[in-house]
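@channel sequence for tomorrow's demo:
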Amino acid sequence: MRASVFLLLRYLKPGNKSRTYTFFSLAALTGIALGVTTLVVAFSILGGYEKVMSEKLTSFDADIQIYGYGNQDLTKVDTAQIKIRGVAGDLLKSIDISAQKICILGKNRINEGVTIKGVDSGYLESRTSLQLLDGWFNLGRGVDSLPGILIGKTLATKLRVKSGDKINFFAINQVDLQNMTALPAVENFVVAGIFKTGMGKYDDSFAYTSLQELQRLYEMGANVNLLEIKLKSGANIDSVKESIQTLLPYPYFVVTFKSQCSDV
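structure tokens (generated this afternoon):
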């Protein structure tokens, strides 16, 4: 007889003990079993949640992101890409070049502060966790030759707009925030589409337009301020990140998606 079974029968088998003693022993063991089962289930759920959220984030965000420190523009991006490809080697899946700024979007008297991202064609289609609810991915000039913009579902609800509607855009250049005489660039956009990711960060306060339009509105020239790197499964993200940061000069600032989403 196994020791665990022997001990169980010893304390549960009535023998010379009262039925009350046996009942309380059984109740105590049942409570312990339920408690352990609850902990196992809870940890399993939390582990599954973390895995699902990590997969969703990496399917939309990149494994490694490179910003301009202090929101500075990045120059000599072609040279930086060559260095990145040399470090990542066969582990590299893709490099996306974009620009990211802050702005105000408004419709009638409703205004919302938003992070706007300028991307190349094909960027949005490659984000598997992005679901297009209305409209299309084309961010080129459409209705009345206005530039297109893609906004999140929650943001669209706040602004009370749908695809095809016109919205007002006010560019905010962070370098000029303390200069009260600097006038923001003003533009009219047409809502090309409305998307949903299931993540509040994007659905509530993110918008996308073409990289060329963003560069024009913020007078960036041909510069960008964000490189997004996706690595193949199994890559040591932290190791690749450290190697890239060592090679790239200031103001290149390299971070991983885990460091930005440490609360997930």
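heads up for whoever presents: The two ends are 47 Å apart (CA to CA).
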